[in-house]
Design a protein that fits this description.
heterodimer, A: Immunoglobulin-like, Immunoglobulin-like, nine-stranded mixed β-sheet, 8 helices, 23 strands, about 20% helix, B: mainly alpha, TATA-Binding Protein, 5 strands, transport (chain B), TBP_dom_sf (chain B)
């Protein structure tokens, strides 16, 4: 038996129940609240707490979003992965309704929240979690407008993610190819881990029930079609698709065909575990001139072609927590000391390929150090950046065809961008 | 919703205290109730909204019940929704008032708007008032037939709700049958999915009392239903897909084509964006292929990439759930991720619950080829990140050291930890060095040199202190200062708060005394005196014990305290493989996260009862095979399973045979299930532990096949027959048996006729096992189902450690026993054979 949830709770940052829905009547709010407040009091830092906790016959699974905890409770041996994911979906639903999910937005919308909680889960089994579909029968502005509410068509459709009768004056599709680079460099300057996680993010504004077909420079496909693949094709390690993509067809002939949901969604995600050259390389040297003066010299180098430019580069350099009086000079961009993060943040608006910039910073340290000082938490250097019009994997959208029976012309807009994901260099 | 919560909170000044506001609301609602003025609905909505928010923040507004019901006669859907909400909240505490609402809810169930019909029906079923169930049957019945799928979706769940309020009403109205019809015929997949959830639950709960229900539950797992659902799986919502996949994982396929069909159909599910679907498919693939070792391995390869992607993308909570599952997989198949270990390196920003699991993964995937990199990475964490993780990573290094053969590099690293001079690092490292020395005494010289430099004063943690003291005692001859350090510790006896440390101190000073008597004598006296005066019972007792021991005989005392020690080859695994298998059976559930089978953390009434059906299904398949008579074949096939599998694949195969071969688990299950069935609702495990007599065998279920759990109960063995004396307490572990069986040639093959009494007595393998054991012939593995049984026995000569191994296949239908005997000492095999036969011939005789 899959196992059903007993209740769903929305709690404030102190763990008090804001609103809850009792699905099975076997876990009470008092019980849950008492347990949860104790849990977060005890731990202090809820981040370190496992998201699945057992207490007195009840399993609590929770996630945090802004100043709200979402928590399901269950007395059965339920599916942990599915329920945790479900909570994230609930966050998406609330975000769709209230722009942002936080304590205030919940307090202002108790009635809608109850309605939603009733439709996303029934008797502990997840039901509808597509915000787009839900919003067809639960409307926030219904209190003023005289709209007739009826169960959405999509509930009965084979295409459960899109309803019929959508109309746009201008039919457009935006496709963003976003790749984030995860990299981990150890203190010897060796890359010990690197991979690329890519996503095809779509925003569709299309009328009717459009059929879309997407062509990529996927090596398997191109080879199957007998085309030359010199340098142009790519291998994707593990691809995952939105439920709208006909997976059977992809398995057969690698065609990505689908009827898209309305609005924005992730069409496809993929992973590439090939070794990636760090796009931005940072070297740092720390010199202790005396007991009370420390100097950091940093070199940042862009290791991609000149024609690309990285934007919004942010290099976060860890600094000991007791450093004061920063004195910083940079050859490009600006640097600011952020004592709240124990870091020096060096921002470079635009960083063209094959360039090298320098930073030199001096700090004063207290001359007296505590004997039993807490062990230093050494953080890595972390880098954030975006490189537009560039992908690490070399993925290309060869075509995006949109066919609808009314025969309209739709405009596809494709954009590429690479950004830093978990980009860490343990160099200091 | 929140009325109970109110008692928890102190009323804050900003919140309305309640009383006056509620009576205010009451007045206003009354005024509006009868009014038909334009815009009245808007003002009603405002009032209702206020009521709902009061209710939510914990003010008791139940006194407004009457007014609310009066106002809700309006056709406005928003008002209705709020009214349903209100009623649902207070009906349970006010059953009398709830009766008031039945009327209008029933009316709304016939509304022309399907939305209202659905909502009203849901509210009606959610009232949870036992004496109102009679009003539910009618609306539910028509709801299930409603033309609108939304209403049907709600109605199906309504049936389950009704079942929980009053099971008999639900069964009497024949709703399960209607649900079964909808399950197979409804065009809407959410209706189908809800039917599946409802039926699984209803029949599982009913199965404890009704034969028919347990049959019905079986049919849910039948080929037509499973295939029907599989063919439609792409239409289902992601959550419903998980549900279907969970069902499919329990399906027992009829043959390998069946398996491949299902896998082909589900292959693309591994690419679903929803991680829960991916995990559920993984479970199906793993469960289906359990019996096919090769394919099973391929499945591991196939699922690797999707699972690794799930770990590195998505929320930390998802990584957490997936990592728990990976950990389970890696325990079963350690090599699968051995080249992907870099995926388990920790990121700086990850929450520590993810880091912790990653460290466990790194420990589990470490092997000869990647140890160096992994240990280097772990050492990085020991120095850098937060303290709990630093500790965990040092422990991880230690665990890797204990599971590897080549520990050179690791020992150096551990010793470096000791020199880092951070208290917690030293503490953890000390404990590890101690364990390491127990396994690899050859390293003592290097370790002791470093350990000797550590000052006791810097170590506060009891575990670490105990470890250090243990080393001081154990290696006191190599550590110059040992007696004096111990003496210093004993002087501060009263300041030592941990009993564990004091116990170790007593033992260490004893050991030291025997190695360096003149230097320790004084300390020993002080320790014993302090120990005898200790308020802690154990410390006191140990001190007294040592004292008396010394008084009795010093040499004996030395033998007790300082015996020559053998290096520990393998540290005991805390979890039995039976439990691990059970967790694997419950893949994709909380069991995996908790690393405990579900019966350990759920109450009886909340337990999925499908565990029983698993066993039942296996049983029926097993019996079927045996009846249709493919014995010869399956004996052959099974030969591999029983013996030739190496220890790595043992675990994968344990469930396999139970599905397919007549010669395996089912025979155990038969006893199990009958026991379990007689103790309705009690769990398999708990019931089997209460079985007397053959309990050790039957409770260990499948593993017993491999003889891992054969207990050598010292039964009072009657004197074995004169010529050949066998050791009644012979011990041979399963691996040794397998190895021997492979190495030795067959020295004798014989066929032997069984007496009719013997045949009659052989209903389960256990009866023969006990009989043979009374003749000092021990069973290492057995299996089978009437009429065919297979056994592996061993025996040992009484004086020397010369073994006899026997494979014995018995067919009760032909009353024949086939024996294959292998022996260390070939010359004695003939003698043993006749001994064996005489023992066998006595079987079944009173």
């Amino acid at each position: 038996m899959a196992g059903a949830a007993s209740a769903l709770f929305l709690l404030d940052i102190k763990g008090r129940v804001l609103i809850w829905r009792d699905y099975r009547g076997d876990v009470s709010a008092v019980q849950a609240e008492r347990f949860f407040t104790k849990l977060i009091e005890k731990e202090g830092d809820p981040q370190s707490q496992d998201p699945v906790v057992y207490d007195n016959g009840v399993t609590y699974m929770f996630i945090q979003h802004n100043n709200v905890y979402l928590m399901v409770a269950s007395r059965q041996n339920c599916n942990a992965a599915s329920l945790l994911l479900f909570l994230h979906r609930v966050v998406d639903v609330f975000k769709h309704y209230f722009e942002e999910l936080e304590e205030e937005s919940l307090r202002d919308n108790f009635v809608v929240v109850y309605e939603l909680l009733d439709e996303i889960m029934d008797f502990g089994f997840p039901q509808f979690t597509e915000a787009k579909i839900l919003s067809e029968f639960i409307k926030t502005d219904a209190y003023r407008m005289e709209v007739t509410q009826r169960p959405p068509m999509a509930v009965t459709n084979a295409v459960s993610w899109r309803s019929e009768g959508i109309r746009y004056k201008k039919n457009e599709v935006f496709l963003d190819v976003v790749e984030s680079v995860n990299i981990l460099v150890n203190s010897n300057g060796q890359i010990i881990r690197s991979d690329v996680v890519g996503a095809l993010k779509m925003r569709t504004y299309l009328s009717g029930m459009p059929e879309c077909k997407l062509g990529l420079n996927d090596r398997v496909l191109l080879e199957a079609q007998g085309r030359t693949t010199k340098g142009k094709a790519i291998d994707l390690d593990d691809t995952k698709f939105h439920q709208c993509v006909r997976l059977a067809r992809f398995e057969n002939d690698r065609t990505i065909s689908f009827i898209p949901p309305d609005g924005s969604f992730d069409l496809m995600t993929y992973r590439l575990s090939t070794q990636v050259k760090p796009l931005i390389w940072v070297e740092a040297q720390v010199e202790r001139h005396s007991r009370s003066r420390i100097e950091i010299m940093v070199k940042a180098r862009s290791q991609f072609k000149e024609r690309s430019t990285a934007t919004n580069v942010e290099i976060e350099l860890p600094v000991t927590s007791d450093a004061t009086n920063p004195n910083v000079r940079t050859s490009m961009g600006s640097a600011a000391y952020a004592p709240e993060n124990d870091a020096l943040v060096w921002k470079i608006k635009s960083f063209p390929g094959n360039k090298e910039y320098m930073l030199r910073a001096e700090f004063t340290l207290p001359s007296i150090t505590a004997e039993d000082a807490a062990p230093e938490r050494k953080a890595p250097i972390r880098v954030k950046f975006e490189i537009p019009y560039f992908t690490v994997s070399g993925i290309q959208v060869r075509y995006l065809k949109i066919i609808e029976k009314s025969g309209y012309q739709a405009l596809p807009w494709v954009r590429y961008i690479t950004m830093a994901g978990e980009y860490e260099l343990r160099l200091i | 919703m929140a009325p109970p919560a109110q008692s928890q909170r102190s009323p804050s000044p900003s919140q309305p205290s309640g009383k006056s506001e509620v009576s205010d609301l009451k007045l206003q609602l009354r005024q509006l109730a009868g009014s038909r003025a334009p815009g009245v609905d808007d003002s009603k909505r405002e009032l209702f909204k206020k009521v709902i928010s009061y209710m939510t923040i914990g003010i008791d507004v139940s006194s407004l019940f009457g007014e609310i019901v009066m106002c809700s006669a309006a056709s406005d859907i928003v008002l209705k929704k709020m009214c349903y909400l209100y009623v649902g909240n207070y009906a349970k505490v006010n059953p009398d008032l709830a009766l008031l609402t039945i009327n209008f809810l029933q009316r709304d169930c016939k509304d022309e708007d399907p939305m209202i019909r659905g909502l009203a029906l849901r509210s009606l079923c959610s009232l949870r008032v036992a004496n109102l169930v009679e009003y539910l049957v009618g609306p539910l019945g028509s709801g299930l037939k409603d033309s609108n799928s939304y209403v049907r979706i709600v109605a199906v769940m309504g049936v389950l709700k009704l079942y929980h309020i009053s099971a008999s009403t639900c069964i009497d109205a024949d709703f399960p049958a209607v649900l079964k019809h909808l399950l197979l015929n409804d065009p809407d997949t959410q209706v189908v999915a809800n039917c599946l959830s409802a039926l699984q639950e209803i029949w599982s709960l009913e199965a404890t009392t009704s034969e028919e229900a347990s049959r019905e539950r079986e049919t849910l797992l039948s080929k037509p239903i499973v295939y029907y659902l599989l063919n439609r799986i792409k239409e289902f919502s992601e959550w419903a897909q998980c549900l279907v996949l969970d069902l499919v994982a329990k399906y027992v396929p009829s043959d390998s084509n069946d398996i491949f069909d299902i896998m082909n159909l589900l292959e693309d599910r591994l690419q679903h964006a929803n991680g829960a679907v991916v995990l559920a498919s993984t479970k199906v693939f793993l469960q289906l292929t359990l019996s096919m070792t090769d394919v099973h391995q391929q499945v591991y390869e196939r699922i690797k990439a999707p699972l690794l992607t799930l770990v590195s993308s998505g929320s930390p909570e998802q990584s957490y759930a997936v990592l728990s599952h990976l950990h389970l997989l890696v325990i079963r198949a350690p090599y699968i991720f051995s080249s992907d270990y870099k995926h388990f390196y920790c990121q700086y920003n990850e929450p520590s619950y993810v880091k912790k699991l990653k460290l466990e993964m790194l420990t589990a995937v470490a092997n000869e080829s990647n140890t160096y990199e992994i240990v280097t990475e772990l050492c990085e964490y020991a120095a850098n990140v937060d303290i709990p993780i630093a500790r965990e990573s040092i422990r991880a290094v230690g665990k890797i050291a204990l599971q590897q053969y080549d520990v050179n590099a690791i020992v150096d690293r551990l010793l470096q930890f000791l020199e880092m001079e951070k208290d917690y690092v030293t503490a953890e490292a000390l404990v590890l060095v101690k364990d390491l020395l127990r396994k690899y005494p050859q390293w003592s010289h290097d370790c002791i040199a470093v350990v000797g430099n550590i000052s006791c004063k810097n170590i506060q943690e009891p575990k670490a202190k105990a470890a250090l003291i243990w080393m001081l005692g154990e290696y006191s001859q190599d550590m110059h200062d040992a007696p004096y350090i111990l003496e210093g510790l004993i002087e501060n006896w009263d300041d030592e708060h941990s009993a564990e440390v004091r116990l170790h101190l007593l033992t260490a000073v004893m050991k030291c005394f025997f190695k360096r008597p003149p230097e320790t004598q004084k300390a020993l006296g002080a320790a014993l005196a302090a120990g005898l005066a200790d308020f802690h019972q154990d410390v006191h007792d140990r001190a007294l014990f040592y004292y008396r021991l010394l008084q009795y005989n010093v040499t004996v005392a030395e033998r007790v305290v300082n015996p020559p020690k053998q290096a520990v080859s393998v540290f005991a695994d805390t979890q039995s493989s039976e439990i691990k298998d059970r967790i694997f059976d419950e893949f994709n559930s909380l069991s995996v996260v908790y690393q405990k089978p579900s019966y350990m953390f759920t109450d009886k009434e909340h337990r999925g009862l499908f565990e029983f059906s698993d066993e039942l299904a296996n049983l029926s398949i097993g019996a079927e095979l045996a009846d249709t008579g493919v014995p010869g074949h399956s004996v052959e096939a099974n030969d591999k399973d029983l013996l030739l599998s190496n220890s790595n694949s043992e675990k994968e195969e344990t469930r396999g045979p139970s599905n397919y071969d007549a010669y395996s688990a089912p025979s155990y299950d038969s006893s199990l299930v009958s026991i379990a069935a007689s103790q309705t609702q009690s769990d398999l495990i708990s019931s089997s532990t209460t079985v007397p007599g053959n309990a050790p065998h039957s409770s260990f279920d499948i593993d017993d096949l491999l003889g891992l759990a054969v207990s050598v109960t010292p039964s009072p063995a009657p004197a074995p027959s004169p010529p050949l004396k066998l050791n009644p307490k012979a011990v041979l572990d399963a691996n040794a048996f397998q190895q021997k069986w492979r190495q030795l040639p067959i020295s004798l093959t014989q066929e032997y006729s069984l007496s009719p009494q013997g045949v009659g007595a052989l209903t389960t393998p256990q009866t023969l096992l006990r009989h043979m054991q009374s003749h000092s012939i021990h069973c290492i593995a057995s299996g089978g189902q009437s009429p065919n049984f297979k056994f592996f026995f061993f025996a040992q000569k009484a004086e020397e450690s010369s073994n006899f191994l026997v494979e014995c296949i018995i067919s009760t239908s032909s009353s024949k026993a086939q024996l294959k005997i292998k022996a260390d000492d070939q010359s004695a095999s003939q003698e043993f054979s006749s001994f064996f036969q005489s023992a066998l011939s006595k079987f079944g005789l009173p």
